[in-house]
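Listing S7. Sequence submitted for prediction.
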Amino acid sequence: MSETENKQLLRRYYEEVLTQGRLDVLETIARADYVEHNPFPGHGQGLEGLRQRVNTLRTGLKQQFTLEHLIAEGDKVAVLWTTRGTQVGEFLGLPPTGKSYTIQGVDIHQLRDGRMAEHWDVVDMYGFLIQLGVVPAPSGAPA
């Protein structure tokens, strides 16, 4: 696949799967042997592990992604995203807060044979936890 096609496939993942909740799309865009390099606690690998990850995100968070940058090189696509949402259910052991948040993250996806094959990420979890009121904001930080 071309770099442009790789970016289009990732747009489908964020829009159709993460935002709309269409888990059936994973069958056509992700490999059965998908590797998550930063799995959530208790989650497995492969397509089932990816389904677990998406279910955890969608059950605990009502969110909308804005894809700020997609940069493709060869078989990899880096995505800088912003997500705005509300914690509506339990998320990674945190009880629902009903609070809204806005955070950014960077995902790096590797594709093989036209499908998502591996994933690495860095997410502003500290900012997320502050906005949910789970950890206090540093003194002098804007409210």
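Caption to Listing S7: primary sequence and predicted structure tokens for the chain studied. The first helix runs from residue 3 to 19. The chain has a mean pLDDT of 96.
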